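Private note to self, pasted from the team thread so I don't lose it. Backbone tokens:
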């Protein structure tokens, strides 16, 4: 049974429920220098790349001093969920991490969910604060640059949050990808399957982060919490007639971790889900 009924946002439903901008994506390789702040280093990468937006992997990134938040219940009735107090650490290495890179008030901004190993605290996961993460060692990473539109921080009346939403900038000569944000209660797997078909992206590769109202996994396990932060793991893609294969990592407000392949129809969006689909 879907847990979608457990969350009711304070504002009127967003229309459309799926914000989609088609465009052209190609691989992006980049380097980050030791000692820089993550946000400023990625901003330099974006300026050099000259693209409209990007989604990058940060697997293996060594962090120096860093700060992050986890999902939490809301202290008021203006939101259905909020963030925990700020946590910190002196150093860690990301196991997996994905950053959505776009604009906020015209300046580069990023939204990053990650999993990491901290020698002092063990395994951790959550939402990294990009202007408070120091890069602990020179790093080489990859991802996708995107042309034709950008993720732009936008106020959302339904949830009372401001978050990335795709904004079309121009048509591109070729189309092989789309940047997407999903509204609350949209089912993650269903959206990936339907958008991949509608946009003729085939077995699309999917990179994305967001939040879910609970989730069921193919091994029979579940995340019951209606509040979470979520990261699609490497290998996520639309798998054609068999439907999407979406390996997913979730953390709930109590710091519990959940991991597995999402069952179609069993992973409704809580606040938002931001992703890129690249033709496969």
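Design output:
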């Amino acid at each position: 049974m879907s847990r979608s009924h457990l969350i009711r946002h304070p504002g009127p439903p967003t229309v459309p429920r799926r914000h989609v901008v088609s465009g052209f994506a190609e691989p992006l390789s980049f380097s980050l220098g030791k000692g820089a702040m993550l946000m400023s280093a990625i901003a330099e990468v974006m300026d050099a790349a000259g693209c409209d937006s990007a989604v990058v992997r940060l697997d293996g990134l060594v962090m120096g001093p860093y700060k992050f938040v986890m999902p939490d219940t809301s202290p008021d009735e203006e939101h259905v969920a909020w963030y925990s107090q700020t946590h910190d650490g002196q150093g860690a290495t990301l196991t997996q991490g994905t950053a959505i890179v776009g604009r906020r008030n015209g300046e580069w901004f990023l939204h990053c969910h990650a999993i990491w190993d901290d020698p002092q605290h063990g395994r951790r996961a959550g939402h990294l604060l990009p202007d408070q993460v120091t890069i602990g060692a020179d790093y080489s990473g990859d991802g996708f640059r995107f042309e034709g539109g950008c993720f732009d921080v936008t106020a959302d009346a339904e949830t009372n949050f401001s978050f990335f939403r795709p904004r079309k900038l121009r048509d591109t000569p070729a189309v092989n990808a789309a940047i997407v944000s999903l509204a609350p209660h949209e089912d993650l797997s269903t959206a990936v399957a339907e958008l991949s078909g509608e946009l003729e992206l085939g077995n699309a590769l999917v990179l994305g982060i967001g939040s879910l109202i609970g989730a069921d996994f193919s091994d029979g396990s579940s995340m019951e919490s209606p509040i979470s932060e979520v990261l699609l793991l490497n290998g996520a893609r639309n798998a054609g007639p068999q439907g999407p294969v979406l390996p997913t990592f979730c953390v709930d407000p109590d710091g519990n971790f959940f991991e597995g392949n999402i069952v179609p129809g069993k992973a409704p969006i809580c606040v938002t889900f931001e992703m890129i689909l690249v033709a496969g």
